[in-house]
């Protein structure tokens, strides 16, 4: 095992002499094995090994026992160990996200802070072959593209220049367990690893075993596929870098694309290039979706002067042989792009107090009043009003916004989950063209929950199994009433 991991480390240039390697050790089999192997390699490879353990505040006494185990394990080997505690349940409630996602965010936040303490530091994580296969399946199920099919990178630098290495990514879970047995090394068992409510556990215990029944080498084959996908991505990224330098330029605050050169690229490079250009213009990527990219590409076939509205206050405008990505002027933003966030704090306050909360949209005078309460199962009591709607609160995963429409907006139009572009929905509702830009929406990302005064998305409709209701009323203003 030690020789196999050493070879993998050298193959990917994971560790250099003089590095500080900080291993994330939970106390489970994978991370304990990682620590054992790195401890043996630290002398010949001339690096300093440290350990960080994140106690998530989820499993009570069992969690504290894991922390004690890791401290004792490191103490017996003379390895410096830091234990950091976080409150995953509270953070998940605050941000209205699942505990699995909250735990990952807080864990990586600790890793970044630990890495910042030491020069030439690397964070070592214990992902292995099965973890990579699970990640690929998870990304496929979410609808990810090429990047998701590449799986876990052996070496990755994040936006804050923290380097993550995964020395065990070339070995299997079975090999790890055999190595620990050979060493006579104990480890902790995490009961949450059996909880099928977590997506990864469902993949691990239900889906991967079925794939292995189809082909015993399924995990290995998926990892080889990921390696090939990584090679394809690396090649595409190099092609993209060359194309970006020729096609994209800066003119003061604007990002400018040369249309004819862009048109000459394969579509897959077009989409990646435009996405990167949008991220450069916006200074962020989070809300930039495929629909926004396709809307910008659509301007290649439009006449000069045509434009599309985008997130982050951006507008993409066709200007002769260029597409210009620029910030809207303040007057246009206030007129066309109302956008008010309903924060997690506001939702938590409404939910915990049981009282109503109102938000005024200043430029229209409209007043949104919200309350959250348990559903008693009486579907017949759902209000059939134009300006008061009940929505399934527990289906809302991101913080919703009160805003006007933007490119990429859509609604779910039936119980089967079929979607339709918002513009088409507005046409079907016979909303006059001149009013579509001013109609207020309640939206989660690009998914529109409610076109105020008209329909709501089928996805958020109240059903018999709904547990909590978000009631929203829009009252008053120049164009809105009860």
Spell out the blueprint of helices and strands.
Layout: H1 2-11, E1 20-24, H2 29-41, E2 48-55, H3 61-77, E3 80-85, H4 88-95, H5 99-115, E4 121-124, H6 129-142, H7 146-149, E5 155-157, E6 163-165, H8 173-183, H9 199-214, H10 218-247, E7 248-251, E8 254-258, H11 259-263, H12 267-282, H13 290-298, E9 307-310, E10 314-319, E11 322-327, H14 330-336, E12 339-341, H15 344-353, E13 357-361, E14 366-374, E15 388-392, E16 401-403, E17 410-412, E18 419-421, H16 422-428, E19 441-444, E20 447-451, E21 468-475
Parallel strand pairs: 1-2, 1-4, 2-3, 4-6
Antiparallel strand pairs: 5-6, 7-8, 8-11, 9-10, 10-11, 12-16, 13-14, 14-21, 15-21, 16-19, 17-18, 19-20
Class based on secondary structure composition and strand pairing:
alpha+beta
Query: Beta-strand level of the residues, as a percent range?
Result: 15-25%
Number of strands: 21
What is the residue-mean pLDDT, rounded to a whole number? 88
Q: Rg, please?
A: 26 Å
The major pleated sheet works out as: 6 strands, mixed
Protein traits:
482 residues, alpha+beta, six-stranded mixed sheet, 21 strands, globular
Q: What would your notes on this structure say?
A:
Helix 2 (29-41) packs across helix 8. It is built from 16 helices and 21 strands. With 482 residues, the protein is α+β, with helices and mostly antiparallel strands. 40% of the residues lie in helices and 21% in strands.
């Amino acid at each position: 095992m030690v020789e196999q991991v050493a070879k993998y480390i050298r193959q990917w240039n994971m560790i250099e002499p003089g590095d500080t390697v900080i291993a994330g050790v939970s106390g489970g089999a994978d991370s304990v094995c990682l620590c054992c192997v790195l401890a043996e390699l630290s002398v010949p490879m001339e690096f300093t090994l440290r350990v960080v353990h994140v106690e998530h505040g989820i499993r009570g006494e069992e969690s504290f026992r894991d922390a004690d185990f890791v401290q004792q394990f490191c103490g017996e080997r003379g390895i410096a160990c830091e234990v950091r505690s976080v409150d995953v349940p509270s953070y998940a409630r605050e941000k209205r996200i699942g505990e699995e996602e909250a735990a990952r965010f807080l864990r990586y936040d600790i890793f970044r802070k630990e890495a910042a303490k030491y020069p030439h530091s690397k964070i070592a994580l214990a992902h292995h072959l099965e973890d990579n296969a699970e990640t690929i399946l998870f990304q496929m199920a979410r609808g990810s593209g090429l990047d998701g099919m590449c799986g876990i990178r052996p070496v990755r630098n994040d936006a804050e220049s923290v380097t993550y290495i995964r020395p065990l990514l070339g070995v299997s879970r079975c090999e790890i367990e055999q190595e620990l047995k050979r060493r006579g090394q104990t480890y902790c068992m995490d009961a949450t690893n059996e909880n099928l409510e977590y997506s990864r556990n469902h993949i691990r215990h239900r889906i991967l075993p079925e794939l292995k029944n189809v082909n015993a080498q399924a995990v290995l084959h998926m990892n080889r596929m990921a390696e090939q996908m990584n090679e394809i991505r690396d090649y595409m990224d190099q092609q993209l870098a060359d194309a970006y330098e020729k096609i994209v330029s800066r003119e003061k605050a604007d990002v400018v694309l040369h249309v004819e050169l862009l048109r000459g690229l394969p579509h897959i490079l077009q989409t990646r290039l435009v996405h990167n250009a949008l991220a450069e213009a916006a200074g962020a990527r989070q809300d930039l979706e495929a629909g926004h990219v396709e809307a910008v590409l659509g301007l290649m076939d439009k006449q000069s002067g045509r434009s599309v509205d985008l997130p982050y206050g951006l507008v993409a405008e066709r200007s002769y042989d260029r597409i210009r990505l620029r910030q809207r002027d303040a007057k246009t933003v206030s007129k066309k792009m109302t956008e008010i966030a309903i924060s997690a704090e506001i939702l938590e306050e409404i939910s915990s107090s049981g009282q109503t909360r109102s938000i005024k949209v200043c430029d229209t005078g409209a007043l949104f009043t919200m309350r959250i309460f348990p559903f008693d199962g009486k579907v017949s009591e759902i209000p059939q009003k134009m300006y008061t709607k009940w929505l399934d609160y527990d289906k809302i995963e991101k913080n919703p916004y009160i805003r006007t429409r933007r490119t990429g907006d859509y609604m779910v139009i039936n119980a089967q989950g079929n979607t339709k572009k918002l513009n088409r929905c507005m046409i079907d509702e016979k909303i006059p063209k001149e009013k579509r830009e001013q109609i207020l929406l309640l939206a989660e990302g690009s998914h529109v929950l409610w076109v105020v005064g008209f329909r709501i998305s089928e996805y958020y409709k109240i059903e018999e199994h709904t547990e909590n209701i978000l009631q929203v009323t829009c009252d008053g203003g120049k164009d809105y009433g009860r």
